[in-house]
Amino acid sequence: MKLTGKAWKFGDNVNTDVIIPGRHLSTTDPKELARHCLEDLDPTFTSQVQPGDIIVAGKNFGCGSSREHAPLCLRGAGVSCVIAQSFALIFFRNAINLGLPILECPEAARAIQAGHRIEVELSTGQITDRDTGHTFQAKPYPEFMLKIINAGGLVPYTMKQMNAVNGSGT
What we know:
This protein is α/β, with parallel strands linked by helices. The chain has one domain (2-166): Aconitase, domain 4 (Alpha-Beta Barrel). The chain has helices at 16-19, 30-34, 45-48, 69-76, 89-97, 106-111, 143-151, 154-166; strands at 2-9, 54-57, 81-84, 102-104, 117-121, 126-129, 135-137. The longest helix is centred in the last third of the chain and has 13 residues, at 154-166.
């Protein structure tokens, strides 16, 4: 699966309360959450982010509370992938469960600049900064995780598997 988008650059310790402020947690609707995505960190983000754009961040992205709203909000805003130096473990788990691909690649996270066009190949873990031509290597996803991401998350993946076993095929 190949993803291409413009880079949005953020620093270290972007926590879930910054990704989606707690005052907006009365809904789980991704589009409603997306209206408030990163609004306290970058007030222009929601009006300028485009479907497919990629967040590039420093260390410990997604730290803070374990709310699933954060990756849901990012997906709702059209973010196709997050590349960071490191992730909070609960955010990593929630992101995969909700079908948001994330890649840990310190070299790419340090080198890629805001606004650069980024290409990510999830099956190989290859990240290319199209503006500079530099290529970086993240750990590729195992096949079963790619299936979860491609299905849109763990619940849709599980439903698909259950339907296949039950013979409905949908």
